[in-house]
Amino acid sequence: MRKSFPSGFVWGSATSAYQVEGGWNADGKGPSIWDVFCMIPGKVWNNDNGNIACDHYHRLEEDVALMQSMGIKAYRFSISWPRILPAGRGALNQAGIDFYNRLIDALLAAGIEPWVTLYHWDLPAALEFEIDGWLGEEIPEVFAEYAELCFRHFGDRVKNWITINEAWVVAILGYGHGVFAPGKVSKDLPYRAGHQLLKAHARAVEVYRTRYQAIQNGKIGITNNCDWREPLSDSPADRAAAQRALEFFLGWFADPVYKGDYPDCMKERLGERLPSFSPEEKALLKGSSDFFGLNHYTTMYASEAKPDAGSGSVYGNGGLSEDQDVDLSVSPDWEMTDMQWAIVPWGCRKLLEWIAARYDNPPVFITENGCAFDQTPVNGQVQDDARIRFFQGYLTAVHEAIEKGVDVQGYFIWSLLDNFEWASGYSKKFGITCIEEGTLNRIPKASAQWYGEVVRNNGL
Length: 460
Ligand code: PNW
Fold this sequence. Notes:
TIM Barrel, binds 4-nitrophenyl beta-D-glucopyranoside, single chain
């Protein structure tokens, strides 16, 4: 039977600035912490970098035409903060503003709705040096000023804003495991960075709501990432472990936005290591998202921690697991992507139901979902059946969640182009869709055609 999605469902595709733009020092752009991080030998697979990436900075018209030919209705991209403010604040780089104006205008002319992320990890390096980046006292204010600049220049045409992409990744991978920029390794800094990220989000939303929303008529929200955590057994201890794992993952960033404060289990377990919000900050945070942005990729089993059991995943995917007392594992029966992320569509449905129950059924936009497979083009094309199966499975799960009453209003495929996959560089093995450097992008894929048909039919 055909699965139709609600009318008005937003069908899109997504990228981020550092992963696709290239033009790393073109036309007055300043360096970001990712430009610098990539220069340090050993930080990124093969010492790859985003200097050229997909060269989207020079090929935007071609890429918009590609989206149009696929039938994409919405495009989520991020603004490179140091492209428009080379030092993070102060002097503006007009060439950067011009680039995003051209992109936005080209999208609208092609009938594609722009969804703009303000921060997808490429912090201006100047702010890392000068104010300690996301640990700095001033960063929420500096971020709000940058956000305001974007609202002022682009908000007449951009009606969908995402403040911050995946604060969890910034905090845990950037400040805990140190595998992402700025590369700090610590047990305490993730909670401090996370705190400033939340305050920055809240301030940017306040600026939009008080000065722009009424005139520009757009929406603003935050995108968080979360895997599903399935209890390994039916025991109360494992069920509690799975719940705790979800609260430390998604609750950490969504509870303050929907309830005004961190989850109790985090406050109890972390004590002084978790900063606290003032009454004013709580009030500003609570209700600070017009929609629930969700990036979802995979599922793991959770069980109560046993002494000495490691949590098995590429990035220690549970966060700082010793703080949670949770062991993570995967089933040998689950199919894996080439990033070793398990393909478990029902986990997506369960996570959507968990969000609806915990946060009072907010409108949800899945702002990223996708998979990496190492595929060799044949005659310049990729017959990516595994990817089509992945999307069929996950979209079916989204459809089931909608039938159960979860208010999912949109879905963005990650990603539009084979791109620079952060610490995994352009590795065939770990890049989310990477194929080969040099020809790494714009290779016709069977899945793109398939997705175009789903979009046209508003269903599958
Ligand atoms: C997200 N983890 O990153 C990002 O938003 C994208 O830029 C990225 O390309 C995509 O997912 C694929 O990785 C994540 O360790 C990186 O759980 C790491 C994790 C999750 C998301």
